[in-house]
Amino acid sequence: MTRSELLLNPSRAAQALGVSAKALRLYEDHDLICPVRNQAGWRFYGAAEMERARRIVDLRGLGLSLGDIGRVLAGDALPLDPIFAAHQNRLEAQIVTARAQLAALRHWRAHLVSGREPNDLDYSPLQDQSLSVSLDLPWPWAGERFIIPALPALIFLTGPLGSGKTRLARALAAHIPGARFCGLDRLDAGATETQPLSGPGRDALDWLVSDGARDCAALRALVIALSDPQPTAIVVDYVEDGLDAASQAALGAWLRRYDNAARPVIAMTRSSAVFDPDLATGRELILYCPANHAPPLQVLPVPGAAGYEAVATCLGAPDVRARSAGMAVVMG
């Protein structure tokens, strides 16, 4: 390494880019960026590498898979069109909602000026239309009231073995009107590597494979469940079940870009590849079931938040998790 420009080590480069060092290494592993190295083999990033890395971060923020990012960087603009179209649709939907709210506000103001009583007005157009859930916690809890007033698009449910995660998952699915629980028997539905997919399911599978996932029956069964348009919410038991490490990492990336709050996904996991706190977007909600069966905690994915460290300690890498695959704790 003979370059005299200012060079950043991986930690400083990641900080400057606003991503984690793990994310930066992921881009390197997929040959999207190649840092310079000194004689000792240490990695550094100069101006050219940082400029390319910023483009990668921007494209990742738009929701592109790693494979699509590679094609865009190589000059292929085709992967951008569906991303831009989806973003345009979201913005147009927001405009429609905003216009309806503005119309309602004008209507209310006119009635107030005319002397109409405030209690006679319909305030529903300004109310949060998000799904909510309220339930009495099942055993092994003591029936405590548990409420999530507004379900975000993505919720990760985790906790140590025997903490009651599956019971909570089933209870959530039962108390969210129109929700569906997707258990570990999802492969029994007959999904195979050759089963044809179409529409959103096909798009999701293509994205996952482009991001490094292995096309297999377990992945297809999961994609079929996640792309089913019928449920108002989908609650999935151990989303990583049957997936290898690369597929789990791709699934985690796909879930992080999921933003359909009208149809939330509650994903139960103990895999740090599926849910890596260092890669959290801040939009997720974490439900953590403590080992002592205290009521589940609603944890923000922010270092220092209550319960954050406990969540991090119960997540494991795919090879570590494989050692306890199939284990279950029987609680009466």
- The CATH architecture of the largest domain would be 3-Layer(aba) Sandwich
The arrangement of helices and strands along the chain is HHEEHHHEEEHEHHEHEEEHH
Please give the number of β-strands.
10
Overall geometry comes to globular
Q: Over the alpha carbons, how many angstroms does the gyration radius reach?
A: 23 Å
- Our estimate of the beta-strand percent is 5-15%
Number of H/I helices:
11
Instruction: Name the strands of the widest sheet in spatial order.
Output: 6-7-8-5-9-10
Q: Describe the sheet with the most strands.
A: 6 strands, mixed
Quick tags:
332 residues; alpha/beta; Rossmann fold; 3 domains; 6-stranded mixed β-sheet; two-stranded antiparallel sheet; 10 strands
Which secondary structure elements does this structure contain, and how are they paired or packed?
Blueprint: H1 10-17, H2 21-29, E1 36-37, E2 43-44, H3 47-61, H4 66-73, H5 80-113, E3 133-136, E4 145-148, E5 154-158, H6 165-175, E6 180-182, H7 199-210, H8 217-226, E7 234-236, H9 245-256, E8 265-268, E9 285-288, E10 297-299, H10 308-314, H11 318-321
Parallel strand pairs: 5-8, 5-9, 6-7, 7-8
Antiparallel strand pairs: 1-2, 3-4, 9-10
Helix pairs in contact: 1-2, 7-8, 7-9
